[in-house]
Design a protein that fits this description.
- By secondary structure, the chain is an alpha/beta fold.
- It has 2 domains: 23-174 and 357-376, 3-Layer(aba) Sandwich (Rossmann fold), CATH 3.40.50.2000; 195-355, 3-Layer(aba) Sandwich (Rossmann fold), CATH 3.40.50.2000.
- Helix content is 39%, strand content 16%.
- It has 12 helices and 13 strands.
- The strands form 2 sheets. The chain has a 7-stranded parallel beta sheet with strand order 3-2-1-4-5-6-7, sandwiched between helices. Strands 10-9-8-11-12-13 form a 6-stranded parallel beta sheet, with helices on both faces.
- Strand 8, helix 6 and strand 9 form a beta-alpha-beta unit.
- Helix 1 crosses helix 12 (358-376).
- The longest helix has 19 residues, at 358-376.
- It is elongated.
- Keywords: Glycosyltransferase, Transferase.
- Its EC number is 2.4.1.-.
- InterPro entries: Glyco_trans_1, Glyco_trans_4-like_N.
- It holds the Pfam family Glyco_transf_4.
- This is N-acetyl-alpha-D-glucosaminyl L-malate synthase.
Length: 382
C-alpha cells in the first residue's frame, strides 16, 4: 500500500459460485455528507452482499470513508485535493496496480477526473464507470467507458452537453425498505398538536431553506393550527447562519426546531407530518425518496429529477420554485386535511416499493459494468 493508505477491514472475498469475485474500486473525492455520498455507501454495501470484492478510495476524514470503514468496507485514504493533485493521482494509480480492480466506479465530476488519471498511470485495462449526481455537471464524464445518470433529468443534461446517449445509463437511486415504522404511514396529527413540517438537507442556498422559512411565516399568519418546521443538517455554515438571521427577521424562531446533522435520517423523517424539498437544483432528490420510503407526503420543487420521485397529487405536490404563495396554499390544504396526508403517505410507500428498490439499483448497476466490460473487450465476472 502507498503511504497514507489505511486498510480498515476486508470487503467480500468470494461470490456464491466459488468464482473469483468482481473487484470494484469506488472513488469518491467528497468529504461532506450528502445524497451522492449516501448513494455510494448504499451501493458499496449492496455490492458486497452480492459477493463483489469492494473497496473505497476517498479522503480519510470524509463522512463516506468514516461510514464505510465502520461498516467493514476496505478503505484507502487518498486526498483527491482540488482540480488536480498529482500526488493523489499517483497514489490512486499505485492502489489500482496493487488491487487490480475489474471496475473503477467514480462518483461526481472530480472523482472521475482522478479515476481516469489513476487508470492511465496504472496501465491497467480495467473499465471506468462514472456516476453523475448533478444536472450541472459539465466535465470529465467523457473519459468514462459508461456514465450512470441518477435520473432522466441528469441524463438529459449530459446529452445536452455533448455526451453520446449510447454511453449513458439511467439508474434511479434504490434503498433498502425501512418499513413503515410503528406508526404506519403519516398518522393523523392529534387534535391540538402541532403539524410537523421538516427538511433534511445540507445548509446551502440550492436547498431553499429561505423559501421554507418564508412559507412558514405565511402559513402561520393564515391558520390557527400550530405548525413547526424541523430542520436537520449542519447549520454551522454561512448559509445556516443566514437562515437563523432570516428566521429572526420573519418572527418564526419559536416555530423552528434545529436538529443538527443526523445519522438517523429515516427516524427524523418518520417524525414529520409533511416533508419539504424546496430545492433550486436537484438531480433526483434522495430526501424525497427517503420520505416515500417511510410513508410521508412530500412537497417538492418542480425541477430536475424531483418529478421522477414525486407524482403530483398522488404522493404530494410539485410546486413552482420559490413561489411562496403557491407553497403556502399547498401546505394549508394539507394542514386542514389530515386524511389526505394519510392517503398520500400510503401511496408514497407503494410508489417507493415499486420504483426505488435497492436490488433493482444493484442489478442495473451490475448490468452497466457488464456493458462497459464488453465495450472495452474485457472478460467480466459479473
Amino acid at each position: 500500500m502507498s503511504r497514507g493508505d489505511a486498510v480498515v477491514c476486508e470487503g467480500a472475498s468470494m461470490n456464491g459460485h466459488g468464482q473469483q469475485p468482481l473487484r470494484v474500486l469506488m472513488v469518491v473525492h467528497s468529504r461532506q455528507l450528502g445524497g451522492a455520498e449516501r448513494h455510494a455507501l448504499a451501493l458499496l454495501l449492496a455490492l458486497r452482499r452480492r459477493g463483489c470484492d469492494v473497496s473505497l478510495a476517498a479522503p480519510a476524514q470524509g463522512w463516506l470513508a468514516q461510514a464505510a470503514g465502520a461498516a467493514g468496507i476496505r478503505c484507502h485514504a487518498v486526498g483527491l485535493h482540488g482540480k488536480f493533485d498529482a500526488l493523489s493521482a499517483w497514489r490512486l494509480s499505485r492502489l489500482m496496480r496493487a488491487q487490480r480492480p475489474d471496475v473503477v466506479h467514480a462518483h461526481l465530476t472530480r472523482s472521475t477526473h482522478y479515476a481516469d488519471w489513476g487508470r492511465r498511470w496504472s496501465g491497467l485495462a480495467c473499465v471506468l464507470v462514472a456516476t453523475a449526481h448533478a444536472t450541472h455537471a459539465q466535465r470529465h464524464f467523457e473519459r468514462a467507458d459508461r456514465v450512470i445518470a441518477v435520473s432522466a433529468a441528469v441524463a438529459g443534461a449530459l446529452r445536452a452537453r455533448g455526451l453520446g446517449p449510447e454511453r449513458i445509463d439511467t439508474v434511479l437511486h434504490g434503498m433498502a425498505d425501512p418499513g413503515e415504522g410503528p406508526d404506519g404511514a403519516a398518522a393523523p396529527t392529534a387534535p391540538g398538536a402541532a403539524v410537523r413540517l421538516g427538511m433534511l438537507a445540507r445548509f446551502i442556498p440550492d436547498k431553499g431553506h429561505d423559501t421554507a422559512l418564508r412559507v412558514l411565516a405565511e402559513v402561520r399568519a393564515r391558520t390557527a393550527t400550530p405548525v413547526q418546521l424541523h430542520l436537520a443538517g449542519d447549520a454551522q455554515t454561512p448559509w445556516g447562519q443566514q437562515m437563523k438571521q432570516l428566521a429572526h427577521r420573519l418572527g418564526v424562531e419559536d416555530a423552528l426546531v434545529w436538529h443538527g446533522q443526523t445519522d438517523r435520517p429515516m427516524e427524523f423523517l418518520r417524525s414529520l407530518d409533511v416533508v419539504l424539498v424546496p430545492s433550486r437544483r436537484e438531480a433526483l432528490g434522495l430526501t424525497a425518496v427517503e420520505a416515500l420510503a417511510v410513508g410521508r407526503p412530500v412537497l417538492a420543487s418542480n425541477l430536475g429529477g424531483l418529478p421522477e420521485v414525486v407524482t403530483d397529487g398522488e404522493v404530494g405536490r410539485l410546486l413552482p420554485v420559490d413561489d411562496v404563495s403557491a407553497w403556502a396554499q399547498a401546505l394549508l390544504s394539507l394542514i386542514d386535511d389530515p386524511q389526505r396526508r394519510l392517503a398520500w403517505g400510503r401511496a408514497a410507500r407503494t410508489r417507493f416499493k415499486r420504483q426505488f428498490d435497492l436490488e433493482r439499483m444493484v442489478e442495473q448497476t451490475l448490468a452497466v459494468y457488464r456493458r462497459a466490460q464488453r465495450a472495452r473487450g474485457v472478460d467480466g465476472r459479473t
